[in-house]
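Something for you to look into today, if you have time. I want to see for myself how the chain folds. Leave the record below and I will have a look.
***
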Amino acid sequence: MANFVNNQSNFGGFADLDEWFIERDINVIRDKASEWKKCTTKDSRRDHVSQYHVRWSEIYRLPYFNSVRFCIVDPMHCLFLGVAKWIVTKLWIGEGILNRENLKIMQERADMIKITSDLGRHPVRIATGEGFSNFTADMWKTFIMIFATPITWDFLDEVDKKILAYFVRACKILTSRELLKSELSEAFSKLVNMNKLIEQKYGQEKISPNLHLCLHICECALDYGPLSSFWCFSFERMNGILGIFVIILF
């Protein structure tokens, strides 16, 4: 559930972190979904959803279906289009830590780094527009994994250096093709420490939904394996390929 500070919602407040990962009982969820179906008016159904946050779906008839456990946080959107973009654009650029001159220097430094083509697209629009113009998820991934530390480090203070180091380390673990439970524990610890430092320096209102959701990615990996087995990169690439073709309807 979100907190409200100065009439703005946020997902911070880490004092009760141990209570965040108590899994909801699927039997209770299924019962409440059945109750929703029995509501006879739009108002009663709306009130029921506001209270219990669940609606009926025919899929609940499947005895093995667990809408709680089967809910997956997509790493592509959460880590790269979510957390990476938020930290760089909303915290560092938005709070004036990275200014226009810094971005130009970062672009010059990035241009000097040579990478092989299989590592992703070279970041070329760091200093365009407000900064990082039209970066895709893949570009954010490449930036965080390869470029962020060498081209940004000396522009950051000690807290922001730790935020970046924790996030880069977590991403390096989570994007591996093979994962160990001990490594997942380390990645989770790094993401928690990153969130705490962001809240400490920038305030609780800066903890976005994606910063909160990234703490559930390690649990998703325990259920479904390495992130590459369920993230949306391949799905999005296929959408791009299909978008090239003209569909003729007969």
The first strand starts at residue 3 and ends at 5.
